[in-house]
Amino acid sequence: MLLQETLRMALSSLGVNKLRSFLTMLGITIGVFSVIGVMTAVSALRNSIETGLSFLGSNMVQFAKYPTFSNGGADRRKYDLRRNITLEQAQRYQRLMESFTDVVCLKVFEQNSAPQAVYQNRKSTPGVTFGGSNENFLVANQYAVEIGRNITAEDAELGRPVIIIGQDLVKKLFPSESPLDKLIKIAGRTYTVIGTFTPKGSSFGQSQDDIAIVPITRFLSDYGANNYTVNVATQAPSQLLYNDTVDKGITAMRIVRGLKPEDENDFEIYSNDSLVAAFAKVADAVRAGAFVISAIALLAAGVGIMNIMLVSVTERTKEIGIRKSIGARKFNILTQFLIEAVAISLAGGVLGILLGVAGGNALALMLKASVVFPWDWAALGLIVCSAIGIGFGFYPAWKAAGLDPIEALRYE
To answer: How many domains does the chain have?
Structure first.
């Protein structure tokens, strides 16, 4: 028998029991969908990590009371018990680092309320990213001034009530006029607009243009220095001096925190690389979980394929006997049943891949990430589905090929 004839007969046999074939295929579809969907979403998100997590400028390292990611519970209580990094400590750190770098950014943000900006009868949406910083905020956080000017060292030293706002606030509060020199109110305090940030877009579904920054001294004076901890970002002069700058920064921070040589650091250290690495750990854990779940689903689907193929062999025993009596060889019978098993498995895999890619990219789009197609995982999925079809379909196919034609013809 020609291979194409065997293939035609195999697919024809599957078409006789469409519902049974579809339900068997569905098990493979679910398993492949789970892993491809997760891998697609993770791959899409990883493509936006550089813009989404890399909110620090180049060659930057940041010291803070809290880590970027924590597990909550006991970990959160541990960090809550730490002393705040005060403005005085941060300013002393800045002085200690003057001989190593000119870029030390002190910043603090409102975390306990949802600030709203107001100008005359116009209001922004609640939840404005509102904080205080010094003249190095632009460099340390990859922002730029569109019109007006930046906060100066003198503004921070004198605690002037001035503010720079993002484009979301410009559009909502000043749709048809210049915001410069206008008075706006945030959290009950009034500030003069001295500049606006250039548009930065969204990251993971959250706008980076819904922001307002005042001098850090003014912010802590208005809202209470004891209620906030200061984050300190430091830029190395070059990539070659980055590690040296980090070491000097750690030493300076330990000095201003009054730590003894045997004391462990009571502050967190992170950079763009550490943020990306932290996200990668989360992504790897998600991938591992999806892989385990999909492996179990595919194993169950493989058992289902074997069971259905054994039922099919039993139902078609007489047909096998007739084919053997007119010259079909064991190889032909074996090939036909293997093709049926692999066809079911591959059909389920293709459907699972399509659904997984659609579902994963839908999640990515919700988080403002770019659409991707995981070619490597799709190819691996098809290979695994083929292996499942062959592995779980071989025994039924071998059993069919080994039937005695005389006994098969007698079967009722």
So the answer is: 2
Beta bridge partners of 214: 132
What is the rounded distance in angstroms from the CA atom of residue 393 to the CA atom of residue 308?
9
Gap between the Cα atoms of 208 and 33, Å rounded: 33
pLDDT class of 1 with cuts at 50, 70, 90: very low
């920054």: which residue's tokens? 213
Neighbours of 149 (CB within 10 A): 12
Could you tell me if residue 41 is inside a domain?
A: yes
Q: For 39-65, how does the pLDDT look when each residue is reduced to its tens digit (9 = 90+)?
A: 887 777 666 665 555 555 568 888 998
- What is the rounded CA–CA span in Å between residue 208 and residue 201? 6
How many other C-beta atoms can be found within 10 angstroms of the C-beta atom of residue 29?
23
What is the rounded (10 degree) CA torsion for 21, 27, 29, 32?
A: -140
Which residues constitute the domain of residue 391?
3-50+278-410
185 DSSP β-pair partners: 118, 190
Model pTM score? 0.64
User: Helix (H, G, I), strand (E, B), or coil: what is residue 64?
Assistant: strand
In 3D space, the residue among 109, 110, 85 whose CA is nearest the CA of residue 249 turns out to be 85
Of 266, 286, 305, the one marking the end of a domain is 266
